[in-house]
Amino acid sequence: DLDAYYSEGRRLSETLHRMSPMPGLENVLFPGELEAEREKDFRKHGIPLNPDHIERLATLGDEFDVPLYWE
What we know:
mainly alpha; 61% helix
C-alpha cells in the first residue's frame, strides 16, 4: 500500500532527525539529503563558481562577443 509506504518513510525520517548527531556534527542526515539541500540552494542562488573560472568565462565571452549575463 503506497500510503503505508510513505507513512513509514516519514516516520523513519522523523525518528532519524530526532537522533543526537555524532560529536562534531550538527545533525543526522539520510544518504543523499545533503546533496538534495545543496541542489535546492543552487537552484535558488546559483552554482558558486571559482573566481578563476568566472574570469575565464568573461574572457571567452569577450572573445566570442557573448554578453555576460551576470553583469
